[in-house]
Amino acid sequence: MNTGKVDVLLGLQWGDEGKGKVVDVLTPNYDVVARFQGGPNAGHTLEFQGQKYVLRSIPSGVFQGGKVNLIGNGVVLAPDLFMDEAKDLEKSGHPLKNRLHISKKAHLIMPTHRILDRAIEAAKGKNKVGTTGKGIGPTYTDKTSRNGLRVGDILDHFEEKYASHKARHLQMLKALGWTDFDDLEQTEARWMEGIRYMKQFKLVDSEFEVNELLCSGKNILCEGAQGTMLDVDFGSYPFVTSSNTICAGACIGLGLGPNKIGDVFGITKAYCTRVGSGPFPTELFDSTGKMIREKGHEFGAVTGRERRCGWIDLVQLRYSVMINGVTKLILMKSDVLDDFDTIKACVGYRLKNGETTKNFPYEIEDVETVYKEIPGWKADLTKCTSEDQFPQSFKDYIKFIEDFLDVPVTIVSVGPDREATIVRK
User: Fold this and answer.
1) Global confidence as pTM
2) Which residues pair with 10 in a beta bridge?
3) Beta strands in 123-207 (DSSP E)
4) DSSP string over 231-264
5) Which of 129, 236, 410, 413 sits between 20 and 30 A of 185, alpha carbons compared?
């Protein structure tokens, strides 16, 4: 039997590591690109041939013809937003109907899920999690409480199923004292249009499809959304997303056995960012943080929100490498640090009891960071086309990261374009 391979690509920080670009660079080696969790709260930005694309729910392999792109059962899908995204791609010359398959077991984000998202977040007051308001959390809550509406439901008696779920949500909103329903009718009309549009795609029993493709010798790349530190179990809880963003989530979100997983590509920026609320030990509140934000264009692809910026956190990355079983590191946005005389890397946390640790602790709210200072390379990395052209100081920075994390850096990105990606020997 000619069995293919399954590799996983995911972010190792708090999201926004540049997964979309890397998937696009890696896809020539794969026949299938599959999304296994998350929803339209995660935006993957890709730039090539002078065009910029932001993908929210659609896998990043759609730009390469002849690939199967699969939205897996672990994803939550908003039909109206999916329709807008798909139509934009088709307008720009990327046919999707024959490239994109959708799992019947993926859950649907209803218009009332978005209202619930806003109402629940407002009720938290100062303890807000900082959600994108896209309805992700309430949809996953319905899923785990066995009240979900799934893609497969649109094929049979859908109107009555929808009405029943909507009535339940309205009761919940009434209990929360929420009265802002101004846009519901309009949103619902667009949402139903999205449902009709989705029916034009191949709706599949994805767990069978993905395993059959594998058995027939096809190579599969599983594409994670968000980042490891937003994982509902292993992230900085409760400031996390509602799904498993780690490597194990690929098995659950696609129906793959864990023994099928081969390489795990872990993506990290040369610094660190975070969007929304929650602890962030290496966050910079000074001109350095502002400089990183501006040079790195650190604004959310979907929300436009300013990202919080800080130095690379190797304690946090060591933890992410461990729980994902990372075999290959991909270092993004190193060029953003081109102008710094000195670059810092967090190599330890000092806890309240005075102890210093390299292990990521249960509570990171009040840890004090211990830094190692590394000389900057003071060179324009965007001009490099091979690793031989890297300044020695940058090579030293890469070596320091590799030694600390005990994983090789195999790809280095030195600019936003697809071409600005250097595969190391």
Assistant:
1) 0.92
2) 266
3) 202-204
4) -TTTSSTTSS-SS--STHHHHHHHT--GGGEEEE
5) 129
